[in-house]
Amino acid sequence: MASLNCFILALFIAVSLSRGEAARHLLQLPPLPSVPSLPKPPLPPLPSIPSLPQPTLPTLPTTQQPSLPKPSLPPLPSMPTLPTVVPKVSLPPLPSMPSIPNIPLPTTIPSIPFLSPPPAGN
Which region ranges are annotated with the description Disordered (predicted)? Predict the structure, then answer.
């Protein structure tokens, strides 16, 4: 299995290198000749569109629509009267914020006791 993987890797490297050589060879070729411009042929004239006769529309008979009675709407109800004086509303006082207790912080870092290694058993 390992020899197959090595063979595939070697084949991939060989193909990659040969592509690089082919690309370098293409870059070293002389430039291709330019394509000559071709003459443009003249277009034929467009055909004229014939004019069509305009048809005459017959007049439609008019019919008289019967008049319908206009419905009458009931009167809108009147708005209730609102009081003009609004009573003042007083809010209760806000509760006071509790005080944060003062916690003393240590200014020195406590030392970690050093443990001595066990004695060597000779």
Answer: 30-79
Q: Distance between CA 17 and CA 11 in Å, rounded? A: 10
Q: Is the dihedral of CA 10, 13, 19, 23 positive or negative?
A: negative
pLDDT digit string (tens) for 16-31? Answer: 766 666 777 777 778 8
Q: What is the pLDDT of residues 62-73, one digit of tens each?
A: 777 778 888 888
Secondary structure of the chain in HEC code, one letter for each residue = CHHHHHHHHHHHHHHHHHHHHHHHHHHCCCCCCCCCCCCCCCCCCCCCCCCCCCCCCCCCCCCCCCCCCCCCCCCCCCCCCCCCCCCCCCCCCCCCCCCCCCCCCCCCCCCCCCCCCCCCCC
